[in-house]
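Chapter summary example.
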Amino acid sequence: MQNKDSNPPDGGYGWVVVVSAFIVMGLTAAVLKTFGLFFVEIQEHFDELASTISWITSITIATFHLGAPVASSLCVKYTHRAVVITGGLLAFSGMALGCLGLSMIWMYATTGFLQGLGISFSWTPAISIVSHYFSKKRALANAIASAGECAFAFTFGPFFQWLISQYGWKGALLIIGGTQLNICVCGILMRPLTSSSRPEVSHSETPPGNGASKTDKEEKSTIAHRTFNWMLLRRPEFVLYAMFGILAAMSFFVPPLFLVPLSYSLGIDESWTASLLSILAMVDFAGRLLCGWYANLHLTKTVHLLTMTIMLISTSLMLLPLANSYLSLAIFTGFYGFFFGTTVAIHITVLAEVVGMSDFDSALGLFMLIRSTGGFLGPPLAGLIVDMAGDYRAGFYMAGATLILAAVFLVTLDQFQQRSEKGSQINTKLEKSSLPYASFHFLKLQKRRYQDHDVVV
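The structure predicted for these 457 residues follows.
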């Protein structure tokens, strides 16, 4: 079986796959990102605390991450196309059933769990297949694909606000679910590369007779290993990056969740509040494309670039609660959105550099699984802090402080990688320096053997 992954197209039909992934990102991550518009509506309908409502988003995020390893394994067993189509159907089901609004448990099960599983089964294969189609231009391709999230969020902000005002939050959920059916169309366009996830297996060395079954068993065993490569947990660099992922996930979903309630608490009109999400999406879009383009120039080590953007996000979140008007809130939101976009554009590329493409599919699923703990705990923890403080600003301070700790793990990862590189260079030099002596010693031994042989004869 030929493995074309060793020589990815780096263009051609790959750009069709990028556009499809762009739309998938918009219909999954952008919906999750702008779900904060429903926060107050659902809270008023059920008359619950902020921490209770936050569990909807928390369950969605956790299911999104926990479903990633399952989505990765299904991509190997079937195709990326089939999994994306399944994800689109699940996302639609979550919204369509959630619009019934029977109880908070019902919302957790539908808009939380089903929607999260649909996002996972759509997002994971989409971002994975883009990495398979590109090598040299991978950073740029990933940046363009991920930019779909903010491009759609730019329009979803006012669009969702209009839907809520016209049809209520229940009717808006149903319409959004119908829109998510377009994920299935994008999945159909994701034509799989031949053996894109399957390793090369030599059939010529298989004995006749029972060779086919042995080859199949060997291939399945190798595929399972690459999908669930738990040995990655023994690699310090992967563990450090996973710790960064947990802390980042605890922070990333908090600002969009509390930005709308914070603006309401400042007395800002609803129409202006929706524009904040559009501003957030617009600068996020610019940040992703600019950072993807810059990373593609290879002028700065990607992990250094990621560390810098994380620190800038943290600073923005610490400053954002100081806003006391629409203008100041829009400015700080813009800074946060831009630096968030630069982070999202390169964090998957950094993961590929940490583990290598041979383990990328396995690492992506495992990374998302581990990161789910942060996404699961972040929103409820922030909601609890908000309830205790009685101020939505407290959630932003919590998110900013958590990102500072996340940056510490990135710095540690970089130090570990530098030591490993230095150790490899020293070993290489030692091997080269010892080669002439080893060759001379080998020739000397050979000469002695010939001399002893002549004496015996």
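To summarize the output: The radius of gyration is 26 Å.
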